[in-house]
Amino acid sequence: MKKTVALGLFSAGLLLAFRPAPLSPETLKTEALQDLQAHYAEYRQVAQRIWGFAEVGYKETKSSALLQETLRKNGFTVQAGVADIPTAFVATYGSGQPVIGILAEYDALPGLAQQAVAEKTPIAGQDAGHGCGHNLFGTASVAAGIELKKLLREGKLHGTIKVYGCPAEEGGSGKVYLVRAGLFNGVDAVLHWHPANVNATMVGKYIANTSAKFRFYGIAAHAAGAPERGRSALDGVEAMDNMVNMMREHVPQETRIHYVITGGGKAPNVVPDFAEVYYYVRHPNRAEVEAVFARVVKAAEGAALGTGTTMDYEIIGGTHDLLVNETLAHALQRNLEQVGGVSYTPEEAAFGQKIQASLGAPAPPVAQAAEVSPYILRDLGGSSDVGDVSYVVPTVGLMASTWVPGTPAHSWQAVACSGQEIGSKGLMVAAKTMALTGIDLFSDAELRAKSQAELKQQVGSYIYKPLLGNRKPALNYRD
């Protein structure tokens, strides 16, 4: 019996001696880069199909379904319709800690339908277009998630990967509802990216934002035959707009207030009994947003009183500012520099120069798309619901050059680039950088711990509260 036990122990020792050593993170990164590039054509096709769908916020039925199908085919378990949003989903692979999340967006913008050409050429019969490149955004995030899943399946990494399908970033605050539903509880870190005209780590501030639709109700009447019997809802909107415009002199200078009149009547000779105006209020500080928005509400109430109309309003969206996690940002910067930027063919460079000529402003050389920006703080210039995610879990992102240098977001030029090969090349920069950073996060417990300690220090005693309150998702805000 003693001899048998000794032989068993000897055999076990031999197995341990010859067990392959764990692969280094750098070896895994080389493997991931090669595998992602090998599947470039597949991911480009997915992105192009979503570009063609061009579905606006909370209406992204085909886009969401395609990304879900891609993830399921690659072994993910997909929970669809989360947080009371039909087009939101969470795709999961693996088990245990750490849990790494990746954000995916896929909504288009109204009024930006454009062919993938260097001249302004609308698409007949289509309204929306991917002027923020979210067809590329969602696809790259799915690609990075699948690559990390492969390493988990092969036992080269351990833990759980989650890909979050995030609808309606463009004004619908989709991620806020996912945060509110607790879908990021237990997640160790989150990766994201955004299409852009540069390759850079996202080290800067998205500003906080609250948006609402103000609706005025009056009394219809013949504008010439019985004007005294009418009460114009449009007068209410215009009076509100005048007061808010006067208020601009008396708010902190970083404040941004935007509006569009979304309904103002149907005929000049009918006193409008309904009118609507859609407002955004932004500021780097979430508390200042709440304060200024309260003043905008008072202006609306005064306008209704002064015009003999009534008013109500609906909060459409509300997002926090973005917390920059520098621990993760430095790690991502190293990976972005390893991946590099986008190289144009001569034909793509010629396309880029035509796009730049249409901008009406000086632009950097098209070759700048191949460069990676140094690690610097920058003004991100807008708002995003990723800010809310950054308040509950360490979050890091990058910008990848999917558009010709100098191209602004939310433009027909951005739509055209997002449908071209140059956009798909930028998609791969993002997918590769997120995959490499994901490998770091799975492999390095100290990196995760430091990022979590940094977030705790940033948040301090603040208890996260959605700026949009308890309202249900505004599923029809684009109607």
TrEMBL record:
InterPro entries: Amidohydrolase, Aminobenzoyl-glu_utiliz_pB, Bact_exopeptidase_dim_dom, Peptidase_M20, Peptidase_M20/M20A_hydrolases, Peptidase_M20_dimer. Residues 211-303 form the Peptidase M20 dimerisation domain. The keyword tRNA processing does not apply. Residues 1-17 form the signal peptide. Pfam families: M20_dimer (PF07687), Peptidase_M20 (PF01546). The keyword Signal applies. One of its GO terms (biological process) is folic acid catabolic process. One of its GO terms (cellular component) is cytoplasm. It comes from the Bacteria. Keywords: Hydrolase, Signal. GO terms for molecular function: dipeptidase activity; para-aminobenzoyl-glutamate hydrolase activity. This is Amidohydrolase. It comes from Hymenobacter cyanobacteriorum.
